[in-house]
Amino acid sequence: MKLKISEVNEKDRIIKLDNDNCTLQDLLNEVGKDAVETYGYKLSYGYPLKTIVVGDDNINSLLSTLNITNGDKIFLRDAENKKVKQDPISELISFKEKTVSVKKVPDDNSCLFHCLSYSIYGNMNYSTQIRRQISEYIKNHPLEYNDPAILDGKTIEQYCQWIEDYNSWGGYIELSIIPRIYENVTIWICDIINNYIDKITTPTTTEKYENDINSGSIFYQNQIIVLLYNGIHYDLIVGPVDGQYNFRFDDNEWLNKQCYEIMEKYKNRTFDSKRVEIKCKQCGVILVGEKNVSEHAMKTLHYDFAQL
């Protein structure tokens, strides 16, 4: 069992417990805490968030009976340390306040990759790396992508060169590849225009997953990445806890409801990607639709656009 431990003023770290019969005391020992000294500590975990206080009634409880499972992120807090501003857990969150929210990412033609970077690595530093991973996947699977119609009329070489450019927009092709690279990942695209959630997955996504795929990845088991799409721009839907950039499969029903509420809230902020007018700020030409913008960028190497 792998767990991610988060403590105030400490760098998050991963611990590994040898079997599924571990108790709360075993967990605390592995973290380096004396079980008795942690009486009164608060452990928060799961989505929606659950908090327990360490004490006689649970110190010897199996983690399974506490619903702590492989891949959980555990927030460990000293109950007396209430004034630390860095603490991402608000113990005053009521059930009704446990809602998802939208994390805005820069509108710089790499919004999709920024969202993926946040969800997979917890920050925006891996956007370029994810582009390269997608490019490598396409190169390594030529039989799947040898039809130019699949790659917007481009050859594999042309498309890979294009998608590695920071200014190139990502879309469905890239989203369909991510669950193949990061196995056991499902991507939900909350399409505001059509009020619909498109769910991209692979056959292996429902299987148990216990291995780290990439160094630094915050995925340890089945996870859902949730994107908000308004027809031209992607933002990331995040959970009620700071740093919660993805969701677990057992959040399904709750998350589905939350997503539709978010789409309803943002329904007046949509753009029809087929009809939206966009101006090239480098040459001044007015283009209609995302496809024409993409073709213009390919022909002219102009990448600085603004919506009208």
From TrEMBL:
- Name of the protein in its database record: Ubiquitin thioesterase OTU
InterPro entries in the record: OTU1_Ubl, OTU_dom, Papain-like_cys_pep_sf, Znf-C2H2_OTU1-like_C, Znf_C2H2_type
**What Pfam families would the database entry show?**
OTU, OTU1_UBXL, zf-C2H2_OTU1_C
Where does the OTU domain start and stop, copy by copy?
Answer: 100-240
Organism name = Arxiozyma heterogenica
Cellular component, GO, one term: nucleus
Any coiled-coil regions, as ranges: none
Q: What is its main location?
A: cytoplasm
Give the UniProt subcellular location, in the record's own words: Cytoplasm
Which EC numbers characterise this protein's activity in its record?
3.4.19.12
Which Gene Ontology BP terms does the record give? endoplasmic reticulum unfolded protein response; ERAD pathway; protein deubiquitination
Entry keyword set: Cytoplasm, Hydrolase, Metal-binding, Protease, Thiol protease, Ubl conjugation pathway, Zinc, Zinc-finger
Q: Which reaction does it catalyse?
A: Thiol-dependent hydrolysis of ester, thioester, amide, peptide and isopeptide bonds formed by the C-terminal Gly of ubiquitin (a 76-residue protein attached to proteins as an intracellular targeting signal)
